[in-house]
Design brief:
This protein is mostly helical. Helices cover about 40% and strands about 0% of the residues. It has nine helices and two strands.
Amino acid sequence: MLQATGGKVKMGTIANGQDDEWFRMLANQNGCFYFNNQGTAVTVNQPGCVRALDTIKKLVDAGVVAFGGWNEQIQYIKAGAVASAMFGAWYEGTIRTNAPDQSGKWGVYLMPAATKGGVRAANLGGSALAIPASSRNKEAAWAFVKHALATTEGQITMLKEYGLVPSYLPALNDPYVKQPQPYWGNQPIWQLILGTLGRIPPARGTQYFQEARQIMTAIQADFLAGKYKTAKEALDEAARQISRATGLPVAR
C-alpha cells in the first residue's frame, strides 16, 4: 500500500529529536531498557537495545517513516498521511477523538515480532500517584484514590471515554472488554490489547528515567544523523552519559 501511494503515505511517525518512544517500545519488546530490573546498573547498550536502534535506522533509511512530535503525529493521522501509529494503548482515545471522520478505517494489530516467535507487545507510558509523607490528610487522600480509580465502573468509564487502559485488574473481566468497537471496524480491540498483559517484559524506569530519556533522545537523533557508525557505538555513548548523570555503573 505504501508503494502504491508513491511514498506520500508513511508507515508511521517517529518523534526524532523530541522523544525516543519508538526506541523504548522496541527495546522493551526485546527485553532491554535504560536500566536493569534491579535499578542498579545502566543497560541501554545491551543487545536488545542495539537491535531496537538498528531497526529504527533501517526504517528511516528505507524512507517509510515520517518525523514529527505529538502535534505532527496527530496531524498526519487526520490528513491520512500515515498508515499506522505505534503507541501505548491509551493512544486509542487520541485517534478516535481527533479523527472521528475516519471511523471504520482503522484497526488494531500486535507489534511485529523482532525475532520469529518473539514478543509482540511492549509498554509505553503509565501513570503513578503518590501521597506525600507530609500530608495531614493521608486517609482522605487514599480514600479519594480508591474512589476515583479502584472500581470497575470507574475504570471502564475511562476506557470508554478516553481509551485509558484499566490498571485495576478486576476491570479486565468486565463484558465491555470483549465488545466490538464501532470506530475500529467492530474489532474487539480491548480483548486483543489487554490480552498482551503478562507477556510484556518488565522494565524499571527508576527515579532517573527522565535523565536517561533526555540523553537517549539526543543520542538517537545524532545516530540517525550519521554521528555514530553503529547503533552499538551510539548506545555505548548513551550508557556512559547516563552513568555519569545517575552515578550507576554500566552493566558488563
